[in-house]
Design a protein that fits this description.
The chain has 475 residues and is of the alpha/beta class. It is 38% helix and 21% strand. It folds into 2 domains: 273 residues, Aldehyde Dehydrogenase, Chain A, domain 1; 181 residues, Aldehyde Dehydrogenase, Chain A, domain 2, CATH 3.40.309. Helix 2 runs antiparallel to helix 4, helix 3 crosses helix 4 and helix 9 packs across helix 10.
């Protein structure tokens, strides 16, 4: 039995007006889970009209009450974690334990933004003359168009819903058509908690058709996107033509620097888990491993041991440590990167192949002797592949680490506090882990440098991307 994944517009869960849809596949089996409905221009117009009305209704709710509603939505997500996580595993592939953690983190974002919504305020101060007063007011920016990906389908949408709704905005979200159920579960929690039906819309369709329609629409005031750098540039350019602000969290290619003073086995143990979480399909994932020569062999041997032993399988199996890649495109992309590296002289220390002929499973892979011209050193792999590069010259290594357009995250492992800080200060990345690999808790602002985006999500600043100020001068 398959499921229909509907549009959600003005509180109605329905098919698109033209009855168009596409299949949603289980990446562990390749079987069809259901069909996701596509929105036509008629449906998008309805969503835009409803969002305009929803903006007025939601603004009429006090910031304190908005906070209460968002915190109630967080409670509902936690109460329904089992069903939501199962849906996520079926459509995205990640192990069920990871899916449960994602649902919990989504709830945390809603709760955090609910607390921050209660702190929305302006400020007043005296002007330069007696009787002159200046007020700075904070207002919601307007209707938000959000575009979210498939790798963390609920959490990455929750960040945007949390910030926008907390600030008093209405929001139209176009999630990935490959993982619709996760965002629909989020929408259900928000609506059941008391968000006005018109303030939320979920639409699906051909990505370029939906973005080309929503971004220039006069009702839309703000664009937010999480995804690849090339797509982010296209959406930012479209927003720029309409002079609309954007928040962009784009791709990463995180250098992971392992210094010679660490215990290589313990460091490999830690990094194996970090790397193979979500099958490496994380923009913050460690991806380019620079390992100091005096520990490189031991580190590589231990990491390869983990890769070879990692239990890969269906995410619903409690023994599974890593699920499939999320779609056939990723399977082809990872296979291409590994074959390209091998053709140019790299050697496979572990993995390096597809597993089975059903689903999109790829073995956790460790590559050594990777040449500088290998494509995997320039293109974000977004999969369970570790290219290992030895180094002796710290300055040369840092030049290579900083040498790409990516600036999202980087990691350094050392027991030398002075060296940790020295390297950290030279890394051109918005997020740096010192003896740690970063996840994104809601209390921290996360954003990329260079071409990895601009603006942040999270932290005490979580509402700011969705706010505008008004300067009032009175006498």
């Amino acid at each position: 039995m398959t499921t229909e994944f509907p549009l959600v517009i003005n509180g109605k869960w329905r098919a698109g007006s033209r009855k168009e849809s596409e299949p949603v596949l289980n990446p562990a089996t390749g079987e069809i889970l259901g069909h996701v409905c596509h929105a036509s221009s008629i449906d998008l117009d309805e969503a835009l009209s409803a969002a305009t009305q929803g903006m007025r209704e939601w603004q009429a709710v006090s910031p304190w009450s908005r906070g209460t509603i968002l915190k109630r939505a967080a409670e509902l997500l936690r109460e329904n974690v089992e069903s939501s996580a199962r849906t996520m595993t079926l459509e995205q592939g990640k192990p069920l334990a990871e899916a449960k953690l994602e649902v919990a983190r989504s709830a945390d974002f809603l709760e955090w933004a609910g607390e921050q919504a209660r702190r929305v305020s302006g400020r007043t101060f005296p002007g330069r003359d007696l009787g002159h007063r200046i007020e700075i007011e904070t207002h919601p920016v307007g209707v938000v168009a959000a575009f979210t990906p498939w790798n963390f389908p609920m959490a990455l949408a929750a960040k945007k819903f949390a910030g926008a709704l907390g600030a008093g905005c209405s929001i139209i979200c176009k999630p990935s058509e490959e993982t619709p159920g996760s965002v629909l579960a989020l929408a259900r929690a928000l609506l059941d908690a008391g968000v006005p039906p018109a303030a939320i819309a979920i639409v699906f369709g051909r990505p370029e058709d939906v973005s080309n329609y929503l971004i220039p629409a006069p009702q839309v005031a703000k664009i937010t996107f999480t995804g690849s750098i090339p797509v982010g540039k296209l959406l930012a350019a479209a927003a720029g033509r309409a002079m609309k602000p954007v928040t962009m969290e784009l791709g990463g290619h995180a250098p992971t620097i392992v210094c010679g003073d660490v215990d290589p086995e313990k460091t490999a143990d830690f990094l194996a888990k970090a790397k193979f979480t979500n099958a490496g399909q994380i923009c913050l994932s460690p991806t380019r491993f620079f390992v100091e020569e005096r520990v490189r062999e031991r580190f590589t041997a231990r990491l390869a041991q983990h890769a070879s032993a990692w239990r890969v399988g269906d995410g619903l199996d409690p023994k599974t440590q890593m699920g499939p890649l999320a779609n056939e495109r990723r399977l082809h992309a990872i296979s291409h990167l590994v074959e390209d590296a091998k053709a140019k002289g790299a050697e496979v220390a572990a993995g390096g192949k597809r597993l089975g002929d059903r689903g999109y499973f790829y073995a956790p892979t460790v590559l050594v002797k990777v040449p500088p011209n290998a494509e995997i050193l320039r293109s974000e792999p977004f999969g369970p592949v570790v290219p290992i590069l030895g180094f002796e010259d710290e300055d040369a290594m840092l030049s290579q680490a900083n040498g790409l357009e990516f600036g999202l995250s980087a990691y350094v492992f050392s027991n030398d506090a002075v060296r940790l800080r020295r390297i950290k200060d030279q890394l051109q990345f918005g997020t740096v882990g010192l003896n740690d690999v970063v996840t994104h808790p809601p209390e921290a602002p996360l954003g990329g440098w260079k071409e990895s985006g601009y603006g942040t999500e999270g932290g005490i600043e979580i509402l700011e991307p969705y706010q505008k100020t008004k300067f009032v001068s009175s006498r």
